[in-house]
Hints:
elongated, 7 helices, MSTO1 protein, alpha+beta, about 15% strand, DML1/Misato
Amino acid sequence: xxxxxxxxxxxxxxxxxxxxxxxxxxxxxxxxxxxxxxxxxxxxxxxxxxxxxxxxxxxxxxxxxxxxxxxxxxxxxxxxxxxxxxxxxxxxxxxxxxxxxxxxxxxxxxxxxxxxxxxxxxxxxxxxxxxxxxxxxxxxxxxxxxxxxxxxxxxxxxxxxxxxxxxxxxxxxxxxxxxxxxxxxxxxxxxxxxxxxxxxxxxxxxxxxxxxxxxxxxxxx
Length: 221
Protein backbone atom coordinates (compact mmCIF):
# COMPACT_ATOMS: atom_id res chain seq x y z
CA UNK A 1 0.00 0.00 0.00
CA UNK A 2 2.87 2.36 0.81
CA UNK A 3 4.53 1.81 -2.57
CA UNK A 4 1.20 2.30 -4.38
CA UNK A 5 0.58 5.57 -2.54
CA UNK A 6 4.09 6.75 -3.44
CA UNK A 7 3.42 6.22 -7.15
CA UNK A 8 0.35 8.48 -6.91
CA UNK A 9 2.01 11.35 -5.04
CA UNK A 10 4.30 13.94 -6.58
CA UNK A 11 4.89 17.71 -6.44
CA UNK A 12 5.29 17.62 -2.66
CA UNK A 13 2.20 15.50 -1.97
CA UNK A 14 2.39 12.55 0.43
CA UNK A 15 -1.23 11.56 1.18
CA UNK A 16 -3.93 9.74 -0.80
CA UNK A 17 -7.67 9.35 -0.21
CA UNK A 18 -9.56 6.05 -0.32
CA UNK A 19 -12.81 5.53 -2.21
CA UNK A 20 -14.99 2.45 -2.58
CA UNK A 21 -18.23 1.17 -4.03
CA UNK A 22 -19.40 -1.92 -2.16
CA UNK A 23 -21.18 -3.30 -4.01
CA UNK A 24 -20.51 -1.63 -7.35
CA UNK A 25 -23.94 -0.54 -8.73
CA UNK A 26 -24.59 -2.89 -11.65
CA UNK A 27 -27.77 -4.71 -12.64
CA UNK A 28 -28.10 -8.38 -13.64
CA UNK A 29 -26.82 -8.89 -17.17
CA UNK A 30 -25.40 -5.38 -17.18
CA UNK A 31 -22.08 -4.79 -18.90
CA UNK A 32 -19.46 -2.45 -17.50
CA UNK A 33 -20.19 0.25 -20.12
CA UNK A 34 -23.89 0.05 -19.18
CA UNK A 35 -23.06 0.57 -15.51
CA UNK A 36 -20.64 3.44 -16.19
CA UNK A 37 -22.99 5.20 -18.62
CA UNK A 38 -25.57 5.36 -15.80
CA UNK A 39 -23.19 7.73 -13.96
CA UNK A 40 -21.97 10.20 -16.62
CA UNK A 41 -21.41 13.18 -14.30
CA UNK A 42 -20.21 11.69 -11.02
CA UNK A 43 -18.32 8.55 -10.13
CA UNK A 44 -20.37 5.75 -8.49
CA UNK A 45 -18.15 5.37 -5.46
CA UNK A 46 -17.98 7.05 -2.05
CA UNK A 47 -15.18 8.75 -0.16
CA UNK A 48 -13.88 6.71 2.80
CA UNK A 49 -11.30 9.20 4.06
CA UNK A 50 -12.60 11.82 6.55
CA UNK A 51 -12.42 14.81 4.20
CA UNK A 52 -16.05 15.97 4.58
CA UNK A 53 -16.48 16.14 0.80
CA UNK A 54 -19.73 14.97 -0.76
CA UNK A 55 -18.55 14.67 -4.34
CA UNK A 56 -15.44 14.35 -6.44
CA UNK A 57 -13.85 17.65 -7.45
CA UNK A 58 -11.08 16.22 -9.61
CA UNK A 59 -7.81 14.52 -8.82
CA UNK A 60 -4.11 14.64 -9.64
CA UNK A 61 -3.53 10.87 -9.86
CA UNK A 62 -5.49 7.72 -9.05
CA UNK A 63 -5.43 3.94 -9.09
CA UNK A 64 -8.76 2.16 -9.57
CA UNK A 65 -9.52 -1.56 -9.29
CA UNK A 66 -12.85 -3.10 -10.28
CA UNK A 67 -13.76 -6.75 -9.88
CA UNK A 68 -16.82 -8.82 -10.68
CA UNK A 69 -18.26 -6.95 -13.71
CA UNK A 70 -17.59 -8.28 -17.19
CA UNK A 71 -18.01 -6.74 -20.64
CA UNK A 72 -20.82 -8.28 -22.68
CA UNK A 73 -20.70 -8.12 -26.45
CA UNK A 74 -23.42 -5.72 -27.58
CA UNK A 75 -23.81 -3.33 -30.52
CA UNK A 76 -21.95 -0.10 -29.69
CA UNK A 77 -24.38 2.32 -28.03
CA UNK A 78 -21.74 4.75 -26.77
CA UNK A 79 -17.97 5.29 -26.98
CA UNK A 80 -17.66 3.13 -23.85
CA UNK A 81 -19.51 0.25 -25.52
CA UNK A 82 -17.14 0.49 -28.47
CA UNK A 83 -14.12 -0.25 -26.27
CA UNK A 84 -12.48 -3.58 -26.89
CA UNK A 85 -12.10 -4.59 -23.23
CA UNK A 86 -13.34 -3.77 -19.74
CA UNK A 87 -9.97 -2.23 -18.91
CA UNK A 88 -10.25 0.11 -21.89
CA UNK A 89 -13.83 1.07 -20.99
CA UNK A 90 -12.93 1.90 -17.39
CA UNK A 91 -9.84 3.82 -18.48
CA UNK A 92 -11.83 5.91 -20.97
CA UNK A 93 -14.45 6.63 -18.30
CA UNK A 94 -11.75 7.82 -15.88
CA UNK A 95 -10.16 10.04 -18.50
CA UNK A 96 -13.56 11.58 -19.25
CA UNK A 97 -14.32 12.45 -15.62
CA UNK A 98 -10.73 13.28 -14.66
CA UNK A 99 -9.12 14.87 -17.73
CA UNK A 100 -5.41 15.45 -17.30
CA UNK A 101 -5.08 13.18 -14.25
CA UNK A 102 -2.72 10.23 -14.14
CA UNK A 103 -5.09 7.24 -13.99
CA UNK A 104 -4.30 3.54 -13.77
CA UNK A 105 -7.05 0.92 -13.73
CA UNK A 106 -7.37 -2.83 -13.37
CA UNK A 107 -10.42 -5.02 -13.94
CA UNK A 108 -10.72 -8.53 -12.48
CA UNK A 109 -13.49 -10.94 -13.47
CA UNK A 110 -13.54 -12.65 -10.07
CA UNK A 111 -16.01 -10.95 -7.67
CA UNK A 112 -15.52 -10.48 -3.94
CA UNK A 113 -16.94 -13.51 -2.13
CA UNK A 114 -19.23 -12.82 0.83
CA UNK A 115 -20.05 -16.23 2.27
CA UNK A 116 -20.10 -16.65 6.08
CA UNK A 117 -18.56 -15.34 8.24
CA UNK A 118 -18.87 -12.25 6.00
CA UNK A 119 -21.65 -10.09 7.57
CA UNK A 120 -24.92 -10.06 5.64
CA UNK A 121 -25.71 -6.36 5.86
CA UNK A 122 -26.83 -6.05 2.24
CA UNK A 123 -29.99 -4.50 0.86
CA UNK A 124 -32.85 -6.83 -0.22
CA UNK A 125 -32.42 -5.24 -3.66
CA UNK A 126 -29.26 -7.30 -4.21
CA UNK A 127 -29.29 -10.64 -5.99
CA UNK A 128 -27.33 -13.64 -4.76
CA UNK A 129 -24.41 -12.41 -6.86
CA UNK A 130 -24.59 -8.81 -5.67
CA UNK A 131 -26.33 -7.16 -8.63
CA UNK A 132 -29.02 -4.51 -8.17
CA UNK A 133 -32.74 -5.15 -8.73
CA UNK A 134 -35.27 -2.44 -9.55
CA UNK A 135 -37.56 -3.62 -6.75
CA UNK A 136 -37.37 -6.15 -3.91
CA UNK A 137 -38.18 -9.75 -4.91
CA UNK A 138 -41.57 -11.16 -3.95
CA UNK A 139 -39.94 -13.91 -1.93
CA UNK A 140 -36.86 -13.53 0.29
CA UNK A 141 -33.74 -14.28 -1.73
CA UNK A 142 -30.80 -16.35 -0.61
CA UNK A 143 -27.85 -14.77 1.17
CA UNK A 144 -25.53 -12.69 -0.97
CA UNK A 145 -22.65 -14.93 -1.97
CA UNK A 146 -20.53 -12.46 -3.95
CA UNK A 147 -20.51 -8.81 -4.97
CA UNK A 148 -18.83 -6.64 -7.60
CA UNK A 149 -16.54 -4.15 -5.89
CA UNK A 150 -14.66 -1.03 -6.94
CA UNK A 151 -11.89 0.51 -4.86
CA UNK A 152 -9.76 3.57 -5.60
CA UNK A 153 -6.89 5.54 -4.15
CA UNK A 154 -6.66 9.18 -5.21
CA UNK A 155 -4.25 12.02 -4.79
CA UNK A 156 -6.97 14.66 -4.87
CA UNK A 157 -7.80 18.24 -3.82
CA UNK A 158 -10.31 16.93 -1.25
CA UNK A 159 -7.34 16.09 0.97
CA UNK A 160 -6.67 19.80 1.42
CA UNK A 161 -9.72 20.01 3.69
CA UNK A 162 -8.47 17.16 5.87
CA UNK A 163 -4.92 18.49 6.14
CA UNK A 164 -5.97 22.11 6.73
CA UNK A 165 -8.37 20.96 9.43
CA UNK A 166 -5.63 18.96 11.15
CA UNK A 167 -3.28 21.94 10.93
CA UNK A 168 -5.89 24.28 12.44
CA UNK A 169 -6.60 21.88 15.32
CA UNK A 170 -2.91 21.49 16.16
CA UNK A 171 -2.31 25.22 15.85
CA UNK A 172 -4.90 25.90 18.54
CA UNK A 173 -3.22 23.56 21.02
CA UNK A 174 -1.73 25.18 24.09
CA UNK A 175 1.55 23.28 24.14
CA UNK A 176 2.34 24.53 27.65
CA UNK A 177 -0.33 22.16 28.94
CA UNK A 178 1.52 19.15 27.44
CA UNK A 179 4.72 19.21 29.46
CA UNK A 180 4.94 15.40 29.49
CA UNK A 181 4.81 15.37 25.67
CA UNK A 182 7.85 17.61 25.35
CA UNK A 183 9.55 15.87 28.27
CA UNK A 184 9.61 12.74 26.09
CA UNK A 185 12.16 14.40 23.82
CA UNK A 186 10.14 16.55 21.41
CA UNK A 187 11.42 20.09 21.24
CA UNK A 188 9.10 23.07 20.82
CA UNK A 189 11.01 24.06 17.72
CA UNK A 190 10.56 20.59 16.19
CA UNK A 191 6.83 20.78 16.88
CA UNK A 192 6.52 24.14 15.14
CA UNK A 193 8.58 22.89 12.20
CA UNK A 194 6.32 19.84 11.81
CA UNK A 195 3.30 22.14 11.99
CA UNK A 196 4.61 24.28 9.14
CA UNK A 197 5.40 21.16 7.11
CA UNK A 198 1.78 20.08 7.56
CA UNK A 199 0.59 23.48 6.34
CA UNK A 200 2.89 23.23 3.30
CA UNK A 201 1.60 19.72 2.59
CA UNK A 202 -1.99 20.99 2.62
CA UNK A 203 -1.05 23.71 0.14
CA UNK A 204 0.30 21.05 -2.24
CA UNK A 205 -3.30 19.85 -2.76
CA UNK A 206 -4.68 23.26 -3.71
CA UNK A 207 -6.09 24.17 -7.08
CA UNK A 208 -6.11 27.72 -8.45
CA UNK A 209 -9.10 29.13 -6.57
CA UNK A 210 -8.13 27.34 -3.36
CA UNK A 211 -4.66 28.86 -3.54
CA UNK A 212 -6.25 32.32 -3.53
CA UNK A 213 -8.30 31.35 -0.47
CA UNK A 214 -5.15 30.17 1.32
CA UNK A 215 -3.46 33.51 0.70
CA UNK A 216 -6.44 35.22 2.32
CA UNK A 217 -6.25 32.81 5.27
CA UNK A 218 -2.51 33.46 5.64
CA UNK A 219 -3.14 37.20 5.71
CA UNK A 220 -5.76 36.76 8.42
CA UNK A 221 -3.32 34.63 10.46
